[in-house]
Amino acid sequence: MKRIHWIAIISLVLYACGKKDVISTFFAGFETPANFPQPVYRMADNPVTEAGFILGRKLFYEPRLSRNNTISCGSCHIQSSAFTQHGHDVSHGIDDRLGTRNSPPIMNLAWMPAYMWDGGVFDLDLQPVAPITNHVEMDETIQNVISKLKAHPEYPGLFKQAFGTEDITNARMMKAFSQFMIMCISSNAKYDSVMRRQGGVTFTQQEQAGYALFQQKCSNCHTEPLFSNNSFRNNGLSISAVNDEGRYLATLQPTDRYKFKVPSLRNLAYTAPFMHDGRHLTIMGVLNHYTDNVQQTPNLDPLLQQNGTLGIALTDAEKAQLLAFLNTLNDKTFVTNKLLAEQ
Amino acid sequence: MRTYIINTLLFAGLFLTIASCKKESTGYQPETMAPLSIEFDNIAGDANLQLSTGNYKNAVGETFSVNLLKYFISNIKVTTSAGTTYTVNPDSSYFLVNESEAATRFANIKVPEGEYSKLSFVLGVDSLRSTMDISKRTGVLDPTGGMDGMYWTWNSGYIFFKMEGASSAVPATVDANQKFRFHVGGFGGYSAPTINNIKTINVDLTAGGVAKVRTGRNANIHLLVDIMKVFNGTTNVSLANNSQIMFSTYSLNVANNYAAMFHHDHTEN
Predict the structure, then answer these.
(1) Topology classification of domain A27-185
(2) What is the reported pLDDT for B201?
(3) Which residues take part in binding heme c 2 (chain A) (predicted)?
């Protein structure tokens, strides 16, 4: 893992120096960070190559994916916001149409077994089809996208470099997207340095106290080191006007009603607002939800109603400690890594 | 001992003669592959299905028209009168029947020469293929939209059966244009269980005529597919109450109904 860390830093330095061919020199492919488990994405079916990654990145920032060539993936997954759409409670797509859910981060997806807030998409290679064809997001067909790419001066050559021939197929396009997306790895927060014992970095007393609280009160769901166990839970949000039933929509199991995927706690400094519908503007708002505002709705998680009490008990001092710890999960190299930016 | 050997040889010779006689009389070469087609001829009760122009009445008395009908047929197997089953290679065993494209009514396959009295297929797409790597799902199975709207992108899975139309029974409060939409799918779930609407259809060809598959011929198993059965069956579907049936538990009723819509009319040999 150390390699990626240093690659990122060296890349930044070199970019700052004005060099342009950083990727060719330093592209190391997909590497599992030392403190991460093995990825769940089927790497063998889609090995990451430099050319595939470059193509995937260009596609990710390609407005031709949308009906009127105005919206790219990067429009709602902005790198400086850890690939979310900062300032929007629900995603804001083509013709100013609004969705019903908050854009989740493109981050550490190789470790995620299902995508979307309800887990309805189980294969990363299938995920991009949803926003491209969704009426309120890009409102385009894959066939039209392929036609546009074939007519483009650069794409046939980029597909040849990535896949051997100039054929632009649906499957190749999806594989290229995946290659870029799984390379969006965030593993260089202070927390990671502490865990990897890098450069003598340690938690402050406040952060350490917050870490202990986190392990005691949060880690059942927000499991290290990805800070989500990828389960689906009802965390006691009040049911909103759109009555989003979450996981139930994907499984039709009554026990899944109002459950949503546990989001990662990495990069919270960049990803506000929070929750599936972006209802909470600040982390403090989220903590206050858990202490004071958990609602008894169908399938409320058992962990949030122990001993006849709703929510999680935290004093103001403990909240401050937790906030200090959560701050150690912010990864500045991730949101500034030029390799992941629009070129 | 000598007599025994002679008798054995005689018996063997006799057996071979009989076997070869039988082979000559049927003319089938089971080691040779020959064409077989299965025709999905969509009807509505006792009338041929006419998209948009035909008007039909379901069991609860609602008049409706149909302007779109598509469904997946897969995993075809045929069984000889002697009980030997042949499974078509999975890579060549997926078909999308689309009423508005006449050529798609035929599922064209190759099977060993022989006389087949049983046919089996799946209405839908099996879970293995539903979860396979995207590069292995081409043609009608391309999940990125090649089959035109037969895939749920937000909840990865094929729509097995799609029928849309219009009826004055559909409340205008539900759909301003009084359209009904039945989109039925659900392969049972990938990591968590959910509805399973995969239906295996078994058809006995004995009464309507066995399929005699030989090189140089094109046997055609002609099935009549009665869309009235989608509405009428164990559950009588009312468009007044259920006009937009998609990924829902109610779709189980529709799938149970349409599993009975295939009837073997005859075989052209």
Answers:
(1) Cytochrome Bc1 Complex; Chain D, domain 2 (1.10.760)
(2) 97
(3) 218, 221-222
